[in-house]
Design brief:
329 residues; mainly alpha; Cytochrome Bc1 Complex, Chain C; 67% helix; 0% strand
């Protein structure tokens, strides 16, 4: 870690070499002792976790009415229009899920830009990155579970991309998406059970330093409730309807754009995997650059190269998403 490094808000970084629980305990003690002011960096994870708790509660309520078999689109429409306050809980679930992933993504970017990845052992960093990926997969499976034309499109695209993986493709595709009347059942299991459990397990120690107080929970609930009341639900497209443009979730739009001219295996599988590997190895590379050895200079150059390559790739993908949102994928 470079000399003089401090996280946002003036809080000194915990020493290296601590495990996840020890690090969280140290962060908590430092924050309480220093009286850390609420800043953008410290508010993001707390608001994100508050959003997550509200999302989980609203999801549990919706799960009593959702049926992942048969005419799922009709089932979702009935929840929205016939179940008492179904529209409200669906809106709450949607916006808090989006808010959690947005805020966790910003939290990760904030850590990365400030080079805080240097604080984490390789195993802990890998767990946190994997948890963020699981969050996006949770959003993706939730998008499929709408049961409308866009949900069917997203599920089919995922199925086709996984099918392109040599040897293991067919097996992997059957893990994530079902067939026939059970098309939505596997995404439902992943969305409601496997992915939330995996995410909770991977961030269990990290979040103890960022648990939201009553104030953050109140802000998240009021904001989500205001959104649910003032913003009309998105119009879901019936599966049999004609549509000129069918899009996936917002974070998939860059890949959807590239799929028009690139091989699905490269765009949907290999490039994302290469990006994730670069993010995973940068803490290890940074450790070599901080040691006194004959490789120190080369490791320092390698870390800077990785750092800027990751930022450049992220920026390029963000541009693709914005262009797709404005002009269509």
């Amino acid at each position: 870690m470079s000399e003089g490094y401090k996280p946002a808000g003036g809080m000194p970084a915990p020493p290296r070499g601590l495990n996840m629980n020890e690090r969280s305990s140290v962060v908590n003690r430092i924050a309480k002792g220093a009286g850390i002011a609420v800043t953008f960096s410290t508010a993001m994870p707390r608001l994100g976790l508050a959003s997550l708790f509200i999302c989980l509660l609203s999801g549990i309520i919706l799960s009593f009415y959702y049926r992942p078999f048969g005419n799922v689109f009709q089932n979702v429409e009935e929840i929205t229009s016939l179940v008492p306050y179904g529209w409200f809980f669906r809106q709450i679930h949607y916006i808090t899920g989006q808010a959690f992933v947005f805020l966790m993504l910003f939290h990760t970017v904030d850590h990365f830009v400030r080079r805080r990845y240097r604080m984490y052992p390789a195993g802990e960093w890998t767990g946190l990155v994997t948890a963020l990926i699981a969050c996006f997969l949770t959003l993706f499976t939730g998008f499929i579970l709408k049961g409308d034309k866009e949900g069917l499109f997203a599920g089919t695209i995922l199925l086709n991309m996984l099918d392109t993986i040599p040897m293991a493709g067919k097996w992997l595709s059957r893990i994530f998406v079902g067939s026939g009347d059970a098309f939505f059942f596997l995404p439902y299991l992943h969305h409601c059970l496997f992915l939330p459990v995996i995410t909770a397990y991977l961030i269990r120690g990290h979040v103890s330093a960022w648990l939201p107080g009553k104030g953050f929970a109140a802000v998240a609930f009021v904001a989500a409730g205001t959104y649910a009341i003032l913003v009309d639900p998105f119009m879901d497209i019936p599966p049999e309807a004609q549509a000129q443009i069918v899009t996936g979730p917002w974070f998939f739009l860059g890949i959807q754009t590239l799929l028009k001219s690139w091989n699905p295996l490269y765009v949907g599988i290999l490039l994302p995997c290469v990006f994730v590997v670069l993010v995973l190895i940068i803490p290890a590379v940074s450790r070599f650059s901080g040691r006194e050895s004959r490789f120190k200079a080369k490791s320092g150059i390698a870390e800077k190269g990785l750092y800027w390559a990751i930022l450049a790739a992220s920026g390029a993908y963000l541009i693709l998403i914005v262009k797709a949102l404005v002009n269509g994928p």
